[in-house]
Design goal:
- The complex is a heterodimer of chains A (about 650) and B (about 160).
- In chain A, helix 12 (about 355-365) runs parallel beside helix 15 (about 405-415) and helix 18 (about 460-470) crosses helix 19 (about 495-505).
- With about 650 residues, chain A is α+β, with helices and mostly antiparallel strands.
- The longest helix of chain A is centred in the last third of the chain and has 21 residues, at about 545-565.
- Chain A has helices at about 45-50, 55-65, 115-125, 160-170, 185-190, 210-215, 235-250, 255-260, 265-275, 295-300, 340-345, 355-365, 370-385, 390-395, 405-415, 420-425, 425-435, 460-470, 495-505, 510-515, 525-540, 545-565, 595-605, 620-625, 625-635; strands spanning about 25-30, 35-40, 80, 95-100, 110-115, 130, 140-145, 145-150, 180-185, 195-200, 205, 220-225, 305, 320, 330-335.
- Chain A has a six-stranded mixed beta sheet.
- Chain A contains 25 helices and 15 strands.
- Chain B folds into two domains: about 1-50 and about 115-155, 2-Layer Sandwich (Alpha-Beta Plaits); about 55-110, Alpha-Beta Plaits (2-Layer Sandwich), CATH 3.30.70.
- In chain B, the strands form four sheets. Chain B has a two-stranded antiparallel ribbon. Chain B has a two-stranded antiparallel sheet with strand order 2-3.
- The radius of gyration of chain B is 16 Å and the shape is globular.
- The N and C termini of chain B lie far apart (about 40 Å).
- The relative contact order of chain B is 0.26.
- The chains are: A alpha+beta (about 650), B alpha+beta (about 160).
């Protein structure tokens, strides 16, 4: 990309201002109880300390959501934040991070989606939306530059998330990305504990029941017109250069290249090879069919498809596709991510890509987390097979791989009719309600969350990460260039201590990425490059060390929030099935529970949290630049 | 002459061209001021960029009453800011909708091919916009017709 300086500039350059580049400079505050809408500037110092996304959200949660404020309390905050890179030409920067006290664990949540939310919000002049209160009747939030209004959503209630966006686009006469709509479907309206927030046809902030929080607040949707404000970069030429460098890295780096070509489609076949594809609710890890048609190029070419990228993204990742055969032939759907193929497919024993793809979009439209639905539906199918749940309870047959049956189950859950009311409470609560032996078949964490769409019995680092996380889901995530931060690139995946050291050693990076307004898949470059991008945008000199320290500080704040919500170390265990030993496949016989206590001990020692109380130690807080947190947690004497 | 060739079947709707263009226009990332614009087709599933084709007829030049539109070194029709009086006649004359009026500066603005190094073509990650020596044409008409018809079939 040439730069403005290489061509004649038509208008005078923008005068330098105190605001760091990349930022819109304001937070948008909404009180649904009073109907008040106001904007709040935030200082350059706060921007550097919290950056945006989860960094900003965690601090708001810590300051404004005390222990007494549960997920359904009017004072709970729903933070819809983007970050300094959103709306700039770095790939995949339309990012949204949702931070709230979620309905799943009744503890902190940080969950990401992309699309154009972040870009449109920034062009409208805001870095984040902070929602509090509960509306008297259903409303949606309309943002068009300086016009910010709560509008009557009566006509949208009952509509699914795609219909909601269709209707608002029609109403405002705006097509494509000129209007970004993030909404809840019927699941969020009925406070399903694993309801999600979905937007821009296929992007989902899905974790920990953030959709139920939005539903409780009677906020149906947030609709943002692509604003007319501009975003300044401190060093635009440097920013364009690093954006191109990151793009080059993603295209050519062996660890990112497959993502660049096919997104996460390769997951099914690749994870099956190492025992990480969860099949039929963790009862097997061996596919009963030939997997040729599940190879990434075939999955993509198996549908009439079109690129459907997020803001400024060059990955060949997100696609729309048209169902080619079967009862739903002709339906336009969003190409599933790996987790869609697994949650709406393999976990429930479904292996026909056409029907799995359809079910995946049905889940997005209704607005539930595809992972938790997979664990719930797979568990129900196993329980039906074993006679723990009867046909009479459900009102229909539900056998392994029955996609139409799964769709009926979804209806039952979303409407909370009959047994659906039990299932709508999520895997853990439903399993506890039924008790053993049904409970023993359910995959969940004792905190009340469920894992991502992998079989963690062959991926211990994710199991440890999920269970120790302050957000109920991955906090460290996948290793990306681990040696850059001094962590070894390869360890024995079944050596618990080595795995725990990797999880602890990589902490911080993901929270930093999730604060930038960027996507997890377009940040799979060296951390140094992301720091260069942030520095070029803002004008700061942001180093890898500062990024890691920032991310770990955010983790410590979320841990403090989590403890305050009663999520204590005694809950850091997997359920019986989640902790079981694989009976077949490449990880057969590997027992994570034999090493679990040792893994926890190692992790706690490495991250500098107190093993007994779970609190970040005073010296840990100080080293992370959060003396105030040490005082809050341990009192002044320490 | 080198022109911006548009290949809509490759466009994924990421709108990176609009960011690059607006940066060239204003020094900021401000898609509202971009002179290349991406439109959706077939509901929300297909996209195509569109900008001035530098048509041979030059309707904008013909209509301009003060001679503010000239041809620059890259062969692009270009607005000379000092001469433009902001009458908007060019925006009415252009049959393609690729002449714009900026209420802030009170002047018309359009694609000038960035003086010979178009930023949109460089920014496009899928080569849906290329800068090449070819005859200019109606780049998206067939695509638009096909994708509109297809939507009717699906719907």
């Amino acid at each position: 990309m040439p730069t403005a300086a290489s061509s004649r500039q038509k208008r005078p350059a923008v005068a330098p201002v105190a605001l760091p580049g990349g930022y819109a400079g304001k937070l948008l505050r909404i009180n649904l109880t009073t109907g008040k809408v106001w904007s709040e500037p935030w200082s350059p110092e706060d921007m550097r300390e919290m950056i945006g996304g989860v960094g900003l959200g965690a601090m708001i949660l810590y300051r404004e959501v005390p222990a007494r404020v549960g997920w359904d309390h009017p004072d709970n905050r729903l933070v819809l934040a983007t970050g300094p890179l959103a709306g700039l030409p770095v790939w995949g920067t339309g990012g949204l991070t949702v931070v709230t006290r979620g309905a799943g664990t009744n503890g902190p949540t940080s969950t990401q989606a992309n699309g154009f939310f972040g870009a449109n919000l920034k062009y409208s002049g805001y870095d984040a939306i902070v929602v509090q209160g509960i509306a008297k009747k259903w409303v949606y939030l309309y943002i068009n530059d300086d016009v910010v209004e709560l509008r009557d959503a009566a006509k949208l209630v009952g509509k699914d998330t795609w219909e909601t966006q269709d209707q608002l686009s029609r109403e405002y006469g705006l097509a494509g990305h000129h209007l970004s709509v993030y909404s809840i479907g019927p699941a969020g309206e009925h406070l399903v504990r694993f309801a999600a927030i979905q937007g821009d046809y296929g992007h989902v902030a899905s974790k920990n029941g953030c959709g139920a929080v939005m539903g409780k607040k009677r906020l149906k949707a947030v609709a943002i017109v692509r604003g007319t404000h501009g975003l300044r970069a401190a060093d635009p030429r440097g920013l364009i250069q690093v954006a191109d460098d990151i793009g080059h890295d993603l295209k050519t780096d062996p660890t990112a290249r497959s993502l660049y070509e096919y997104g996460t489609l390769s997951g099914v076949v690749n994870l099956h090879k190492i025992g990480m594809l969860p099949i039929r609710n963790y009862t097997t890890n061996v596919a009963a069919i030939d997997l040729t048609q599940w190879e990434a190029p075939r999955l993509r070419e198996g549908f009439d498809h079109r690129g459907h990228q997020c803001s400024a993204c060059g990955m060949h990742h997100c696609h729309m596709q048209i169902i080619r055969s079967g009862p739903h032939k002709g339906a336009i759907v969003d190409e599933p991510e790996y987790e869609g193929w697994s949650g709406a497919g393999w976990t429930i024993g479904a292996t026909d890509p056409q029907s799995v793809s359809w079910l995946n979009t049905e889940l997005d439209r209704v607005g539930v987390d595809v992972n938790e639905f997979g664990w719930l539906c797979g568990w129900a199918m196993e329980c039906v097979e074993k006679g723990y749940i009867t046909r009479a309870q459900l009102g229909f047959d539900l056998r392994w791989g029955d996609v139409e049956g799964a769709r009926k189950l979804l209806d039952l859950i979303v409407s909370r009719r009959g047994f659906g009311d039990v299932l709508a409470e999520g895997v853990k609560r439903a399993a506890e309600k039924l008790g053993p032996p049904a409970q023993d078949c359910a995959v969940y964490t004792l905190k009340g969350a469920t894992p991502r769409g992998h079989d963690h019995r062959a991926r211990w680092h994710e199991m440890l990460d999920t269970i120790t996380s302050g957000t109920s889901t991955l906090e460290t995530g996948n290793p990306v260039h681990p040696t850059e931060v001094g962590v070894t690139a390869r360890v024995d995946p079944f050596d618990g201590v080595a795995v725990a050291k990797v999880v602890a050693g990589l902490r911080g990076r993901l929270a930093f990425e999730d604060s930038l307004g960027a996507c997890i898949f377009t940040t799979r470059t060296r951390l140094e490059n992301m720091c260069r991008a942030l520095s070029a945008a803002t004008g700061w000199h942001f180093t890898v060390d500062e990024a890691v320290r920032f991310g770990r500080r955010t983790g410590a704040i979320l841990r403090a929030c989590s403890l305050r919500c009663g999520i204590t170390p005694d809950k850091e265990y997997p359920s019986r099935r989640y902790a079981s030993t694989p009976v077949d496949g490449p990880a057969k016989g590997q027992s994570v529970m034999d090493q679990w206590e040792k893994m926890l001990d190692t992790w706690y020692a490495e991250v500098g949290f107190d093993r007994k109380t779970g609190k970040p130690l005073p010296e840990t807080c100080r080293a992370l630049g959060a003396e105030w947190l040490a005082k809050d947690l341990w009192g002044r004497s320490r | 002459m080198r022109v911006l060739a548009l290949h809509p079947e490759k466009c994924t709707g990421c709108l990176r061209c609009e960011l690059a263009c607006s940066y060239m226009q204003t020094g900021e990332f401000k898609p509202a001021k971009s002179v290349i614009r991406v439109s959706p087709f077939e509901g929300h599933t297909s996209y195509s960029p569109y900008t001035c084709t530098q048509c041979a007829e030059g309707w904008c030049m013909t209509a301009c009453p003060v001679g503010a539109i000239t041809i620059n070194a890259a062969g692009a029709k270009d607005v000379v800011d000092d001469r433009c009086v902001g009458c908007k006649l060019c925006t009415i004359a252009c049959p393609y909708g690729t002449m714009f009026y900026d209420p802030d500066t009170r002047k018309a603005f359009k694609c000038d091919l960035c003086g010979g190094a178009p930023a949109c073509a460089d920014a496009c990650p899928t080569a849906a916009i290329t800068y090449e020596d070819t005859a200019t044409t109606d780049w998206i008409g067939d695509f638009a017709r096909e994708r509109t018809a297809r939507l009717l079939v699906v719907g």
